Batch of 3 targets.
Target 1
Amino acid sequence: MVSATGQALFNAPARSDRVAGGSGQGHGRDRAIALLRSGLFVVGQVVLLASLYVLYDLGRHEAVGREPEALHHARRVWDLERLFDLPNESSLQALALRSTHLPEFANRFYIAVHFPAAILFLLWVLIFHRPAWRRVRTVIVASTGAALLIHIAYPLAPPRFLPRMLPDVDLVDTGAVFGPSPYGPHDTVANQYAAMPSLHIGWAILEAWGVITILRTRARWLAIIHPVITTLVVVVTANHYWIDGIIGGALVVTAVQLTRPEVQARLRLWAITARLPVRGQPLDPVVAVSAVDSSPAAAGLLPSARRDRDRDRGEASAARRKVTAADAPAAAEREVPAD
């Protein structure tokens, strides 16, 4: 006669095999579903970014027909840079023009690196570093959207157009002189009057920030070289002013700061206190205060909520002590052996 325990032991291998087989099939099915969902997510994000780029490109063309205004802004930007004693773009270009190879390299870099680098960076984050994707996506969408608004509100001719109005400015259109040029003689696609801000520099800073933030090796700091070279290239080719790069970089830096988790917690807290709609589930003010407790700025936020939180914690501790005290006699009776 076999006991229940023996039956369980004898039957265990067969059952475990069946369970293992079932779990293997279930695991394979779950994995296939997960891969399908991941693939659909990647495709959806690519379509989203492509759609946003199409909107951005269409919006940039709002400057078409406003060439006189863009040229007037170019003169004002040039004067503003001289007022703040920024380095003269023509001086930097003069150094590069000592070699015919440097201007040609700068032209090729300007044409061939900007979009491929951005696409590769976004795909790298989307496919291999998914946890960082949401923030990277938010930064690029926010900074590019702000840049589009500036393009529409402030059309600006690039510095290579300045010699038409200011004969004393000796900037050269390196694309037209040395080649290759990103703008053909009958180009109807590109908007040459949307120099402000420079997304060449802005996106290069975003890509360097992403690489440095995501990776943990010392080599990640080499990513800084990309925005440095990009800045020199856009100035040497006379496609952007220093101010274009400063504003383009400032947009990205601002978006990076606003997407920090602690800043997001503060923004949600302030939205709740102002009774503004907040995306997702409502956030308990006590939880929100706890999320930003480490910040010095949190000391003056919702003092009543902080007092309520401390009171709730005290009441919970007292309740636990009462339960423990009430259970003690019963536990003692269970431990005393019966006569």
Target 2
Amino acid sequence: MAAPRISVVVVTAARRDDLHRCLDELRRHLAAPDAPSCEVLTVHAPDDDAAMAMVRAEFPWVALHRAEARGIGHQRNLGARAARGEIVAYLDDDAWPCAGWLRGLSDAFDDAAVLAASGPVWRGDGTRQFGRLAASPLGRIVAVPDGAATPTGMSPTFSGCNLAIRRRSLFAVGGFDENLVYQPDDMDVCCRLFAHGGRRAQSFAYRETVAVHHESSPGPFRRTLQDRAWFTVARDTIYFAFRHAGPLRATLAAGPLQLPKFARFAAWLVTGRLGPVAFLRCAAKQAAGIVAGYAKGLWRAPRLPLRPLPTHFGATTPPPTARPAPGPGRHRPPQPV
């Protein structure tokens, strides 16, 4: 059986209803007359039994995989290992593609120079959440106007809820850094891919037709203001700076770039969005995250488990480390390298 051109990987954890909406929309895309050859894989957190049962019952054409541990980098790498397609297209479980998404992705990768592709991310209410973005080595993100070049010294970056990567290139850069359990895993892999492509503008394709909707559903990193991932984001953004800006520049500048959040917390306190206890909780998490970020950046090496694919095998051949989840339904065992 011929390998599909695109492998859509949906990383999910405890969002059964969101995942159902995503897969239901993907089913309509796959039924389109001009749809490219495609497979769909879901990669579940270890305790996601209810969602897995739903997928088996209602979407038997989806290949299910259960991760050994919860973590977006780990789950995305597992999906890349199990994929057979030339292109791995990542969707979050709380995202769903707009009309023409699959066709637009396939067309973008017709150019052999393209290593990654994406497009707009729209909120559920129709407002734009993300457009063209660029990231500095210190992790500062700026919007790039349509038609403008990526600013000097920065790298184009795409949101992980709408991110397609040439599979061979993803393996060549080691995959997603599994030290990043939340943000900025997508920014990190984009920066490494851009460097791998010789920092050529044509290696990243932004297409208006490659659009998704994204609801930003509640989760362990998105609760009340005081329970958001202030610690995790501060820590891992500083870790990102150490990986891309170098130890000296990161030591001097990464921490100060996190300080404006304290002013944001103070503004929320003044306007009544945070009470005194919640304000202290947010500030304490941010401060602890800054300290932890320096420790992580200085002492922890990247965890990049994917290895370049052998040249004597096709780009669509996954290594033997990925295993489909057991249970009923049509499951394709990964082919050995």
Target 3
Amino acid sequence: MKIIGVRLFQFRIPFASPIQVGGMQLDKREGLLVAIEDDQGHVGWGETAPLPGLDTIQMEQCLEELRAAKNTLAGQPLDWNAFTISSPMMGLFPKMDTIHSLTAFGLESALLWLWVGRDKKHPWPKGDALSVPVNGLFVPSSDPKEFKKQSERLKARGFSAVKVKIGRLNPDEEVRQILELDSFFDHAITLRPDANQSLNPDQYQTYYEALKATNVEYVEEPLRPEFDFFEAAQVPWPLALDESLDKFAEQKDLLPKSLGAVILKPGSFDGIHGMARAMTSFHDQGIKTVLSSSFNSGIGVTNIAVLAALKGKETAHGLDTLYYFNQDVLAAPLIIDKGLLNIPMSLFTQKAPFQPGLLEEIS
């Protein structure tokens, strides 16, 4: 078996309403898709999509790297007996040292997709879908109608874990809405507050005093960058690394004792294999890893969900982001029910159905 072709596509998906990322307002999501086809007619899909405001690399650089990889991979043999999720290029080809982690994520995701569709040894679900637990997202709003809309949506989809954005409105108002949300769920939900490095220590202590009776699993990056991450440990909530992950990733002895989780996004480590290695390493240290979508398309979300199914089914992941779009590149929407994201297994074994007009092939 061998690769007979690599095709590249660009996608543009409008957001349902503009979103703020790192001080930038975005009205659409842009990115690249890579399709790797073997000589049996099977196609694996991957996504490389730098997010403005979060990622520093430009999409043009990723495109040039993918074009170079396209020429390198064409005609290469595929020995699936050599497949290893924790090896560069899934163990199928030599590592490409010069490519960015997001480019590697796209290429390795396409190979992973191909493997899922061909692999007969892994105990894939016997049913129609690969199911992964996910958390919902609640963003306190100054619009009173938003609380009802968000809370009812979260309950209808059966979420038991909810990520809650804090540090955007008046703290008293955010606390009021969070307590009301907890009550709406009969105090049966797990909360994951995320401050995106927006609070000072006194403000963080205020949130703790007001919400300490709720079930808080961990808090993501509570303090502003000028405050030491260890200062957050003065509050007895477990902490999660996201924006500060690079600071600690190579220095295990510096990991805070109160660290309960790390948040991994595409590009956090070197491609799929780097993320898989990191998940194993953190697990061995007793630290939970939560995979998160950077407003990826349905292709990217599927790629992350496969990694979650292989390495992280013990926790809920941050993959409930597709509802931010008016539509997705996949014609058949991915479904969340009872807190589970369901990926049809037919995506990996049959021709993926795409929404017309959202993809443009790039030579």
